[in-house]
Amino acid sequence: MTRPPSALRGPLIALAALLLALIPAPATATPTAPGRAAPEPAAPTDFVRLSSVDPTILEEIRYFTRHNFVGARIDGYRQPVCLLTRPAAEALHRAQLRLRPQGYTLKVYDCYRPQRAVDHFVRWAEDLDDQTMKGEFYPDVDKTRLFADGYIAEKSGHSRGSTVDVTLVRLPAEPARPYRPGQPLVPCHAPYDQRFPDNSVDMGTGFDCFDTLSHTLDPRVRGEQRANRLLLKTTLEDTGFVNLAEEWWHYTYKPEPYPDTYFDFPVSTRSVSARSAATAR
Predict the structure, then answer these.
(1) Would you call 246 a catalytic residue per the annotation?
(2) Which sign, positive or negative, has the C-alpha torsion 182, 184, 188, 191?
(3) Which residue of the set 59, 136, 247, 256 is catalytic?
(4) Predicted confidence (pLDDT) at residue 4 exceeds the cutoff of 60
(5) Contact indicator for 165, 108 with CB cutoff of 8 Å
(6) Residue 42, Cα to own-chain centre: how many angstroms?
(7) What letter would DSSP give residue 172?
(8) pLDDT tens-digit profile of 131-172?
(9) Beta-strand (E) ranges in 53-189?
(10) According to the model, what pLDDT value does residue 25 have?
(11) Does 67 appear as a known binding residue?
């Protein structure tokens, strides 16, 4: 390489230094304080705890427990609480006011469900070797069919905040027997006095039973079982809910405040209290 004459080297060096000074420094990420996790998303302002609208409705949030088709607590369930949009919670309250004089109370199994929980279901469904809870929840369904038959999907209406899984309990409500992991499993469509007792009335199958007998109007479900399903259905429909025909327990309030939004804040009182604190500031 030929070097420039000594008389030019000084000005060239100065020019090079000036050009380097004009080049912006690369951006650097702001370090997270040691031991501090990124904040969780909070619920929108119109999400509430169901118990703040109607404390008489029973809550048995199954995905906080191991008594579900996965056999483990589901991602995103930090506390066994029911969170819903306010319109859905108030509609449940109106249904409860109709049912209590008839000797019944509502009981919810699931309400708002974060997207991370749905993702957990998908991972479980893809693991064909994990069939821990098959004996109770999908005794007659091959696990390879869960997506094709519609039992598992990558999105859930629950994540929009206005869908609830619900049943009826006769008053006065007897305490539900706690589930003991490892206990013998009984098919969810077994006779009422044989399957897991959860203090609800006889709906023909247990909650989350992957079987066509769970279809709300399945013609094989008759007598008291059908009457119980119809009482739940007509009461909730009169207060604004729409039933999913394949699941007697699944109802969505219409019109939904968030028909196209799938939230991912965790199920906990903090999700709504943190939002309230932020609003107050």
Answers:
(1) no
(2) negative
(3) 247
(4) no
(5) yes
(6) 15
(7) S
(8) 999 999 999 999 999 999 999 999 999 999 999 999 999 999
(9) 58-59, 83-85, 104-110, 163-170
(10) 42
(11) no
State how far the Cα of 249 lies from the Cα of 214, in Å rounded to an integer.
Answer: 9
Q: Closest by alpha carbon to 78, among 125, 52, 112?
A: 112
Asked if residue 93 belongs to a known ligand binding site, the reply is no
Q: How far apart are the first and last CA of the chain?
A: 66
Cα–Cα distance measured from residue 63 to residue 266, given in angstroms and rounded to the nearest whole number: 12
Q: What is the pLDDT of residues 54-86, one digit of tens each?
A: 999 999 999 999 999 999 999 999 999 999 999
User: What CATH number does domain 47-274 carry, 3.30.1380.10, 3.90.550.10, 3.20.20.150, 3.40.50.2000?
Assistant: 3.30.1380.10
pLDDT at 8: 44
Residue-wise pLDDT for 221-245, tens only, equals 999 999 999 999 999 999 999 999 9
Structure tokens at 218: 């399945």
Tokens at 85, concatenated:
């949009």
DSSP state of 132: T
> Which residue ranges make up each domain of the chain?
47-274
